Amino acid sequence: MVKHADVGWDKWRVFMADERLVPLGHGDCNYKGYKEGLVGSVPLAAEHIYPINPSLSVEAAAEDYTQKLKQVFSEDVPVFDMVLLGMGPDGHTASLFPGHKLLQERTLLVAPISDSPKPPPNRVTLTLKVLNRARCAVFVCTGESKAANVKVVLEGNEQDNPLPAALVQPLDGELHWYLDSAAASQLSQQ
């Protein structure tokens, strides 16, 4: 069993794969969950969790977050040890939605999205360029509402129009999916 002291929390830096452009204390804010769930529970300093700046426009917030990445990472494209992702019932991951133009983004590290099909419309997201450089990408999916698209992503042949979650394929890393029984209910082999 690993004890909290053995983890090396002083080396951890937590960035958001995506974030809604809402105040940091808002119930829909990803940062709020990480801050409340980690800080105080483990010896992770609050300043090692990097929020977006919700007081900026969505475009400026994306650029500001890009600068935060560049301050921490020495590579041109950050290489995360791990990215923790979920998948929505529509197959989206981070704030990368099916059929959205951001799926074709090849230049930006962090992209603004002002037309999210899921409220709120203004968000900031890491792009596939960054997600696919991770050493390890981990998906955690729960619930029956995701079962059909879990099957499509893990067993389907959707080469012409893959769901965003299927596009997360770390180039030199690992990919892991953790599912509850409801999310895995339509898979051929469980």
Automatic annotation (TrEMBL):
One of its GO terms (molecular function) is 6-phosphogluconolactonase activity. Residues 5-177 form the Glucosamine/galactosamine-6-phosphate isomerase domain. The gene is LOC109480461. Hydrolysis of 6-phosphogluconolactone to 6-phosphogluconate. The keyword Protease does not apply. It comes from Branchiostoma belcheri. NCBIfam families: pgl. It catalyses: 6-phospho-D-glucono-1,5-lactone + H2O = 6-phospho-D-gluconate + H(+). Pathway: Carbohydrate degradation; pentose phosphate pathway; D-ribulose 5-phosphate from D-glucose 6-phosphate (oxidative stage): step 2/3. This is 6-phosphogluconolactonase. Belongs to the glucosamine/galactosamine-6-phosphate isomerase family. 6-phosphogluconolactonase subfamily. Pfam families: Glucosamine_iso.
